[in-house]
Amino acid sequence: MTELEKHFAVIGNPIHHSLSPQIHSAFAKEVGLHIDYEAILSPLDEFKNTIHQLIAQKVSGANVTLPFKKEAYELASQHSNHARIAEAVNTLEFKNDEIIGHNTDGIGLVRDLEQNLNVDLKSKKILLIGAGGAAEGVIYSMLEKKPSELILTNRTIEKSNVIQNKMDVHAKSFDVNLNVIEIAKCPHQYFDVIINATSAGLNNTELGIDHKVFHEGSLAYEMVYGKETFFIEQAQSQGSKTSDGLGMLVEQAAEAFFIWHLIKPQTKSVIESLKGF
What we know:
This protein has helices at residues 20-31, 47-56, 69-75, 81-86, 105-116, 133-144, 157-173, 200-203, 230-237, 246-261, 268-274, and strands at residues 6-12, 35-41, 61-64, 78-79, 91-95, 98-102, 125-129, 149-153, 177-180, 193-196, 219-222, 241-243. The protein is α/β, with parallel strands linked by helices. The two termini are 27 Å apart. The mean pLDDT is 93. Shikimate binds at residues 18-20, 65, 90, 105, 225, 252.
């Protein structure tokens, strides 16, 4: 390591599976930067201490993954607009004794859909399955693209209602119909894009959603990456196009890279190189 080399990290628990070090190293190589980027396992009750140790070590920034995004939000002294709305942080900047929190997840999802998968979200009808942190992290970015309708569904409908109430003012400002329907009633409508933001893909459990929700011409997007989930299999059986969340992972990393370095890296070659990992 040289004196000029900047230091970064990704923090999570677990963290051994993280592709972030490979992604950021590839970005840095592409644009000619020398950085050091490592994966750090933080004990579940030691996140704040982990961050302060990194600051003491002159680390410039950190990505934050599960289960620490809410804690990162609470720890930050300043927040970007996306982080404030999501009430979650996945990217930290350590700057002038301040901890600045950003959320790049929604930006990453939208860029993957629009730039890599060629789906223009404007005036489209979107179904978002899930009402946890993953859904909260991306919903505002989708509203910004002005789909005609964004429908929320979840096994626990009350959780979807909470998100709807929280996001309703933003939906109105973007002229988007934001509605909630029970997961069992999803087949009665046509959707251009169906996004699985639940954790079902991690342990490959069924969502309880009818096959009829998927159609030829729809895109089914699974936020989990690197595995053939039940959601993907369901969608393919009905002729839908499908994608996993690898592109979202790389695109949200590219936005974090831009926040830290003010350079926008190319992403398509990195996405291609990671397929199969």
